[in-house]
Amino acid sequence: MGMVTSLFVRKMVAAAGNQVDGSDLLASVGIDASQPADPRLMVADTSYYDLLERMATLMDVTDLPIKTGASMRLDDYGALGLAFKAATDLRSSYGRVERYARLWTSVVEYTLKCEGNNTWFLLHRSGARRLGLRLSNEATLASAAAIAREVSPTGTFAPVEVHAKHPPPATLKHHETYFRSPVFFGSDRDGLLISNTSLKVPNKLGDKGICSFLTNHLDQELSSIPPALSTKDRLRDAIAQSLSEGLPKMEAMANRLGMSVRSLHRRLAEDGLNFQTLAEDTRRDLAEGLLKDEKHSLAEIAFLTGFSEQSSFTRAFKRWCGETPASYRKRTVA
Questions:
Q1: Span 174-180, average pLDDT
Q2: Among candidate residues 135, 26, 8, 152, the one with its CA nearest the CA of residue 93
Q3: Of 223, 249, 283, which closes a domain?
Q4: Helix (H) or strand (E) holding 214
C-alpha cells in the first residue's frame, strides 16, 4: 500500500470550496479538519483516490486538479520547498524534487530526461488508471508548474508541452489556459516538456549556501525512512498492473519505470534475473492469488493474467503447477 501526504488531500478538498462538506471528506480518511495541517501525516493512496472519486459524484471535477495545483506554494513543502527556492536555477530545483520526493509520497517517482533542446520532467505512478489516480496526476503536473512560477523572476514559466497518459476530460480549456501550452492526453507518459533555456534561468531567490544546508537536512530526513522498493518489486508491480492488456513487453515496462531498456536489463542482471522469467513468475503468482478468491471466475482470471482465452490460461497453469486452475481452486479454497 502506498502513502501520500495529507497536505495533498487538504489542498484538493480546499479547492472544491463549498461544493463539498470538507470536514466530512477529511474525516473519512482520518484527517481532523480543526487541526493544523501536518505534511508528515500520511494517507493511504487508495483512500485518497476513493475520496477524489466520491468528490466526483458531488461536483464537476474537470478543473479541480488545476485549481489544486495552482494553490500549491513552496512553503507548504517545508524544507523541500525551501531547497527548491534556494536552488540556483529551475533545473536544480526540479532535481531536488527528483531526489527527495519520497519524503512526501511513496507512490510517485520523478525523473529529469534530456531530449534535444528540451528536458522532460516525468512522473511515474503505477496502478490502474482509475479516476482518483488520474485527478491526482493532473494536480501533480499543475503543482509542478505552480512552484516553477513561484521561483521564476518574471512568474511567467510555461512548459513547451504537457502530457498525460489517461483520456482527456470533457474540455481542455482549463488545462490549456493554466499551463499556457498545448496539453496532450492519451500520451505514453505523464510529464512536462520544458525548454532547456527555461531550466537555466536563475531562480530569484537562489542561494548556494542555503541550498547546501537544506539539502544536507533533507538527506538526513531521507535516510530515516524505509528504502524504496527494489527494481524487481517495482517491475513485478508494473507487470501485474499491465497484464489485463496482455503480456507486457520489456520496453513498455522500462518506460513505465522511467528508465531505458538497457538500464532495466542491467539492473535485473545484477540480481541474476531476466525479464521473461520475472514476467512469467509474476503471471503465475497473480493467477494463484486470484484463484484463492472465489469472487473471480476462471474467465476473469484468464483476462486479468493476460490470456486472450480461458483454454490458453488452463494450459499455462497446468504447465506451472501440474494441475488445472479449477482443481487448484478446489484444493486451496476452504
A1: 97
A2: 152
A3: 223
A4: helix 208-223
